[in-house]
Amino acid sequence: MNGAAGRGETAGAVQEDALLALDEVGGARQGGGSGRAGSGRDPLDHAETNGVPIAATLPVARVALDLQPAHLDQPYDYLVPATMDQDAQPGVRIKARFGRQEVAGYVVERRETSDHDGRLVPLRKVVSAERVLTPQVLRVCRAVADRYAGTLSDVLRLAVPPRHARVEKETAGRQTAEGPDEPAASPEPGDARPAASRADTGPSAPDSSAWAPYRGGEAYLRRILGGEGPRAVWSALPGVGADTADPMTPHWAAAIAQAVRACTAGGRGALVVVPDARDAERVVAALDAAGLGAEDVVRLLADDGPAPRYRAFLRALHGDARVVVGTRATMFAPVADLGLVVLWGDGEETLAEPHAPYPHARDVLALRAEQEEAAYLLGSPGRTAQAQALLASGWARELAPPRDVLRQRAPRVRALTSVELARDGAA
């Protein structure tokens, strides 16, 4: 009897310890992420620091943890140790205690106070001082999670590639060698400088000949050049080699390159998503012909492997390249001062993410265009039902050639007569 009571008391103590451990994690109240100036209690009240000195300013880090259960999908508050004060900035990877386990996550905000009523514990570790999660990408990830009834951690797993420590060291060493005054020095993520200060040194009115056959095509490029955010569904003409010196460049790739060129000439960045690596190579070649070389364009492909993919990601993050071209995962790429998002071939199944919460590049780029006030270009040889829905709702405008131009550019199809069929026989 006493043994049973003892076991019951032990079990109760273990359960109580587990509850206390969870109470030490500062779950932010709903709406707390907006930040109420001067609200909340002193984060050091009843804090469990174990003698660890806490940062004197902004001692609270609001973090997004990699937790699977949907009911835990919320930001949590932790204390920032003084030794991590410089590195624990918004966007960095961290490790934190959650209950009895150590969980990975990202710092999303530094605060003076916390809305949590329980005890706060310090962060365990800053994995890397690289600020890989920009505010713009975090915001679109939250919107995607809400739209697709998923969790933020699931979307962040798709948006931010796994860390590659060797590549980070290479990048840090190169930036140190270049120095802050070198042209290749990268701006901070989310650089808020006026677009004119980063304007392209090329011509003020880039070539728009590939868009001349479309009703409103050249006006669309002028609006992009002027810093506006027009949204269009584009029915591309067939053809190869008609718009560039390269006879193998498809018309659609040359047209995308001219739209991107107009965007960069206006001082903004561009993001191009295509179904596969072959299409990415075509776009990169067309961009090179339009005057945007390797120093301006980064190719971001998951098939390239962990190290090349992370290296390309860091180039985009640091602003070393103003144009990012790639496949499905590129839809979340960090592009400073984003001015144009392009999706080609939205009917291809490779553009639908096979992992939870299964977002489609079409919807993700539409959310980014709205949030960052960027231009949106959805193109394909044949219009999908979803693209038509964007037109029917008035969210986007149509870019299509007149009927006579389409007949002139399209391949001629002639039906054989019965006499011709009989003459050809089995052939």
In short:
This protein has about 425 residues and is α/β, with parallel strands linked by helices.
Structure, described:
This protein folds into 2 domains: 22-133, no CATH class; 165-409, Rossmann fold (3-Layer(aba) Sandwich). The chain is 33% helix and 16% strand. It is built from 12 helices and 13 strands. The chain has helices spanning 2-23, 135-147, 152-159, 165-178, 217-225, 251-265, 277-289, 306-317, 361-372, 385-392, 403-409, 418-424, and strands spanning 26-27, 60-65, 76-79, 93-98, 101-111, 125-128, 231-235, 269-273, 297-300, 323-326, 338-344, 375-380, 397-399. A 7-stranded parallel sheet has the order 9-10-8-11-12-7-13, sandwiched between helices. The protein has a 6-stranded antiparallel sheet with strand order 1-3-2-5-4-6. Helix 9 links the parallel strand 11 and strand 12. Helix 2 crosses helix 3, helix 5 (217-225) runs parallel beside helix 6 and helix 6 packs across helix 7 (277-289). The radius of gyration is 26 Å and the shape is elongated. Residues 1-23, 30-38 and 180-203 have low confidence and may be disordered.
